[in-house]
């Protein structure tokens, strides 16, 4: 019944089409990875515009990472829509604040804080707390969590007590650091990232005229990856809506990966409670990945505990079969990275494009080994940290150097002017060996390449024009990219896809991250992160891990618990029988599968069989002991421990095992 551009909805399946063509009003799409949620919302935007319901300029689409926002813009452009805004929550708020600030505060907006740590350190010093890096990091993330959760310094102690938060210091002291941090920041007239959202919300909530103007301008809101919304972002969204209901949300509760930062899938899962008349659509066909990848993804998330109702959809693969996922174990990280680089080279030689390949890791520190291995193999890769490209100090220095140079009307041509300006801020002819220096160099080179691009595409490209282009990109948080293999953290990879994905460093302590051990909620979040990683691959998926960090170092790492049950039985890695670690003192447990003595590796607090690849994590053993009324620290559990995944699952769910062991 809707009139729309012919063919606009052709590329959608019936459920996707129903969501895309639903009338104006609340729409919610709940579905797994790769089912076309992002595709559906971009088509919905296109459809609403084509059908004349809204103009492109009245649409505001938001998501959580810069890359995902970039991806949305690319897809919208593919549908012929340039004017719709697709931004991160932060970029949208920043833009709005810049526009409204002069009117409500009467000055230009405050600058963004570029070194949060320094301020937290000052605040901690005032409160006489330790300024060790680790403590500061914990305090900084606690402040971030509080702001994202709309918890003020005054409320913090009570909230921390009520929710039994694991606070980095006594709650009253954390609250005081938080208060001091806010005070120092305000008196220096600086804003942190969360302030962008807080201030924008406050402006809209408190200034009627501004809110009216805003709501007149924006009429249609779309949120991708809605499972990761924080209370603060939800409040901003509500301020945007101002009681209206023209809101489309899509998400997958199994991909909630920011709950440590205050995000919750609840607004997604309870969308119809708020909008009872909402159109709700579920999708389960996976268009992204081969059936092999889909089946692995289903296994990974099927093992998750405590999944909320509404998140238990199973993905059904739609694509033709492809290669089997590869599993591989290496002696150390360098060997693992070198092997990944070799495999990337093979794929490239086989006709793959570098930009269709990604190496994904848990923490940014892992990037270095891969940067080095790819550099040695002569393979180009993307500058890491694209998110904050324009916040980098060398980039800001470069921009001011360019600005100064652009004041000289008799300057040389652009490909030369840019190079000579950037030489002043550290762009050398040859790249430095690696590490932070190489990263800075890459960032500067990306600017040069952007200038080359502009010079090639525009006849009268000059320096002022280039500076304007950079300013525009900075405002849109649209960093320049180098063509190459993507190196990214799993968090930054959300919503994206590549033909070939390397999930690396799948060892205990890294994936799941060490501090998640023993905390079930944290382990489940790590599992979802792993699921996000697996579901990024269209065809080739490689999963690897290494036994030691340094070449010839102690082999004190173990493969990730998430891999058990995934590795095919006949794979060499499934049969490893290396003895590793030493029998834990006082332990009488034996593996019922093969009778081998249980070993305990202190670093990862895991019990493991010395002969077969069975494992049991300490959390489960603790539970077992509790049920048996055992008080002893000794693991006297040989009578009923069968270390198979099926048994572990049965134990976790407190039901009898198949062989009646419990
Ligand atoms: P994620 O949860 O990872 O964000 P998603 O649900 O947003 O995934 P999309 O990225 O929109 O999924 O789609 C995954 C891939 O499948 C994309 O390459 C998309 O173009 C393709 N796709 C989606 N729907 C269809 C369809 N009906 N026909 C063909 N291809 C499709
Ligand atoms: Mg998506």
What key phrases describe this protein's structure?
about 650 residues, alpha/beta, Rossmann fold, Arc Repressor Mutant, subunit A, Double Stranded RNA Binding Domain, 4 domains, five-stranded parallel β-sheet, about 10% strand, globular, disordered C terminus, binds adenosine-5'-triphosphate, binds magnesium ion
Topology record:
Elements lengths: L13 H7 L6 E5 L5 H14 L8 E5 L2 H13 L6 E4 H16 L6 E2 L3 H11 L6 H16 L7 H7 L8 H17 L2 E2 L1 H14 L1 H10 L2 E4 L7 H11 L5 E5 L14 H4 L1 H4 L4 E5 L1 E2 L4 H12 L13 E2 L8 E7 H17 L7 E5 L5 H10 L16 H13 L10 H8 L11 H23 L5 H14 L9 E4 L8 E6 L16 H15 L2 E12 L49 E4 L4 E4 L5 E3 H11 L16 H8 L10
Parallel strand pairs: 1-7, 1-8, 2-3, 2-6, 4-5, 6-7, 9-10, 11-15, 12-13, 12-14, 14-15
Antiparallel strand pairs: 16-17, 17-18
Helix pairs in contact: 1-2, 4-9, 5-6, 5-8, 7-8, 9-10, 9-11, 14-21, 15-16, 17-18, 17-20
This protein binds adenosine-5'-triphosphate (ATP) and magnesium ion.
Distance between the termini: 60 Å
Largest sheet: 6 strands, parallel
Helix content: 40-55%
Supply the CATH class of the largest domain: Alpha Beta
User: What average pLDDT do the residues reach?
Assistant: 82
The CATH topology of the largest domain comes to: Double Stranded RNA Binding Domain
So what's the overall shape?
Answer: globular
InterPro entries: DExx_box_DNA_helicase_dom_sf, DNA_helicase_UvrD-like_C, DNA_helicase_UvrD/REP, HRDC-like_sf, HRDC_dom, HRDC_dom_sf, P-loop_NTPase, UvrD-like_ATP-bd
GO molecular function, one term: ATP hydrolysis activity
Organism: Amycolatopsis saalfeldensis
Region (Disordered): 1-20
């Amino acid at each position: 019944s809707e009139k729309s551009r012919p063919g606009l909805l052709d590329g959608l399946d019936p459920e996707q089409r129903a969501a895309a063509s639903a009338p104006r009003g609340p729409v919610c799409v709940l579905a797994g990875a790769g089912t076309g949620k992002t595709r559906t919302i971009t088509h919905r935007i296109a459809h609403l515009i084509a059908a004349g319901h809204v103009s492109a300029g009245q649409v505001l689409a938001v998501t959580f990472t810069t890359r995902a926002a970039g991806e949305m813009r690319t897809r919208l452009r593919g549908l012929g829509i340039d004017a719709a805004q697709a931004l991160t929550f932060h970029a949208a708020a920043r833009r709005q604040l810049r526009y409204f600030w002069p009117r409500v505060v009467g000055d230009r907006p405050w600058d963004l804080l570029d070194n949060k740590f320094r301020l937290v350190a000052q605040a901690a010093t005032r409160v006489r707390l330790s300024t060790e890096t680790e403590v500061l990091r914990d305090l900084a993330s606690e402040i971030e969590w509080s702001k994202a959760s709309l918890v003020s310094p005054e409320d913090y102690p009570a909230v921390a007590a009520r929710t039994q938060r694991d606070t980095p210091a006594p709650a009253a002291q954390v609250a005081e650091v938080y208060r001091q941090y806010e005070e120092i920041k305000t008196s220096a007239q600086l804003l942190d990232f969360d302030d962008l959202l807080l201030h924008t919300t406050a402006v809209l909530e408190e200034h009627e005229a501004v809110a009216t103007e805003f709501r007149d301008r924006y009429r249609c809101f779309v949120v991708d990856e809605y499972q990761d919304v924080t209370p603060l972002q939800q409040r901003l969204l509500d301020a945007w809506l101002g009681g209206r209901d023209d809101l489309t949300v899509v998400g997958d509760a199994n991909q909630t990966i920011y709950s440590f930062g205050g995000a919750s899938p609840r607004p997604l899962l309870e969308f119809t409670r708020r909008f009872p008349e909402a159109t709700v659509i579920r999708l389960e066909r996976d268009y992204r990945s081969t059936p092999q990848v889909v089946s692995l993804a289903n296994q990974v998330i099927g093992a998750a505990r405590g999944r909320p109702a509404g998140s238990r959809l199973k993905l059904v693969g739609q694509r033709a079969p492809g290669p089997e996922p590869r599993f591989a174990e290496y002696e150390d990280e360098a060997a693992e990275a070198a092997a990944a680089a070799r495999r990337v080279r093979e794929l490239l030689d086989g006709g793959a494009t570098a930009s269709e390949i990604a190496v994904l890791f848990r923490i940014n520190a892992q990037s270095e080994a891969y940067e080095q291995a790819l550099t040695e193999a002569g393979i180009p890769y993307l500058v890491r940290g694209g998110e904050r490209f324009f916040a980098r100090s060398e980039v800001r220095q470069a921009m001011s150097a360019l600005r100064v140079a652009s004041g000289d009307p008799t300057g040389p041509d652009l490909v030369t002017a840019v190079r000579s300006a950037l030489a002043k801020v550290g762009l050398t002819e040859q790249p430095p060996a690696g590490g932070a220096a190489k990263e800075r160099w890459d960032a500067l080179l990306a600017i040069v390449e952007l200038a080359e691009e502009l010079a090639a595409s525009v006849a009268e490209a000059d320096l002022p024009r280039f500076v304007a282009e950079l300013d525009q990109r900075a405002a849109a948080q649209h960093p320049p990219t180098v063509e190459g293999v993507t190196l990214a953290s799993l968090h930054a990879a959300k919503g994206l896809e590549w033909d070939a994905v390397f999930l690396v460093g799948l060892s205990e302590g890294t994936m799941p991250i060490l501090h998640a051990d023993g905390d079930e909620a944290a382990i489940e979040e790590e599992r979802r992160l792993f699921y996000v990683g697996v579901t990024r691959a269209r065809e080739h998926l490689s999963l690897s891990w290494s036994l030691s960090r340094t070449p010839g170092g102690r082999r004190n790492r173990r493969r990730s618990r998430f891999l058990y049950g995934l590795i095919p039985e006949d794979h060499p890695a499934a049969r490893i029988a290396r003895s590793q670690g030493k029998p834990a003192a006082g332990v009488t447990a034996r593996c019922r599968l093969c009778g081998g003595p249980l070993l305990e590796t202190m670093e990862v607090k895991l019990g493991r069989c010395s002969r077969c690849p069975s494992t049991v994590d300490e959390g489960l053993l603790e539970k077992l002991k509790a049920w048996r009324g055992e008080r002893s620290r000794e693991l006297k559990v040989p009578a009923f421990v069968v270390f198979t995944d099926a048994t572990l699952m049965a134990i976790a769910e407190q039901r009898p095992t198949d062989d009646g062991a419990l």
